[in-house]
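Lab notebook: predicted structure, single chain.

Context: the supervisor wants predicted structures on file for every construct in the current expression panel, including those that have not yet been purified. This is the next one on the list. No modifications to the sequence; it matches the entry in the shared construct table.
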Amino acid sequence: MKPILEPIEPTDAVDLYLMEKKSEVSQWTHYSHGSRLGHFLRWCAEQGVDNLNDITGRDLKRYKLWRRDDGDINNVTLKTQMDTLRVFIRWCESIDAVSPDLSTKVESPDLDYDDNVRTVMLDSEDGEEVLAYLRKYKYCSLPHVVFELLWHTSLRRGAAVALDVDDYDPQTQQLNVRHRPDTGTPIKNKARGERTIALQGSVCQILDDWIATGRPKTTDDFGREPLLATNQGRAHGQTIQRYVYTYTRPCVYAGDCPIDRNIKTCEAAEAANQASKCPESVSPHAVRRGSITNYLKKEVPKPVLSDRANVSIDVLDMHYNEMTESEKAEQRRQFFE
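Prediction complete. Output recorded below exactly as produced.
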């Protein structure tokens, strides 16, 4: 017997989906799903689709081709977006919004091994140069504290945002990463992402100075004291991202451009809010990848680094270990001499 579908507009379905997912996933995952499904809503609007009941497998094929060409995106990005769409369509099946098993018709591109390994990272030399610049010219500013934490702890952006002043223990020189979804700061992997990180003395000194003299005495909407605070309260993830893009531009920390752009006329160099347009600047995740790779080069055991960075060893090897083959060979040499 053919099921009776209940009419629903695409925007209403996405809103309901995101409302339900809000308590089940991290804030960043929730944002990412909304962003990816935004492209599907845009396509629906362009095609005049005002009832998801009418969506067919052929429509999903058309959407995949449209998204690939419209966004000029690579296979990794296309796969991520189509995988999210599949999850959404499966959810739509559960509320009788689309035909049963329609989710099985959402096609996602197959990836080669090399496609699925993202190699953008901040290498150790550049990372140390950024830190040297911030320590000299922006000491104990929020951008400086953010970068020290991301580089030395390999934290994800969301975990850094979630930190409170009380999560830092200056006596034991440790940082506690905690999942607090009820008060606005969920973290990736939820309770499994909770951990305690040992800090270097130099990082503790910066945190001590930040808390004593630099940090605005503000609280967030839940009355908590965020470690990464602004005059408005807890620093937002987009703020963290903007800082990282701003200070990883070589024209800022090194004073020159490795791709020979004219710094005086370069749009990305002229304004901090255009920093992400610099081909040489990187995101917070690229800093995390560089931090992890730097520790691997220093021969920190993988199980230790896996616990510290909250990433499995398999994923660490596939997505975070950016050592060259020559560097890996030299690291293995000690075991055979």
